Amino acid sequence: MKLQLDVQRPESAKDDWATQFERRIRDVASRAVAHIKRGDSVSVLTNGAGSVRADRNAGADPVLRFLALVEAVPAPASLPAVPAAAPISGTTTTRGGAAPEPPAGVA
Prior knowledge:
This protein is of the alpha/beta class.
């Protein structure tokens, strides 16, 4: 079972964001413990503070310790859109990038 936790605090976050963040941590902890008790393997994944995995053999301690120490991180600033470069004259592109060069002697 994979459980996601968003740890990125947006710049526009209001005062109650921290309260909601703590509530999400408690929710993930509760779900993780319930799944581990059922015998499921659990992974808690974050979008900036790492991840942890636990199962019935390891118990819930690794997950609970990870969640107790996880902290919010600032969300990355959005980058301005960069216009796509115009293709170089005489070449074609494929999904993977520029088309391969033709073998020597082939036009």
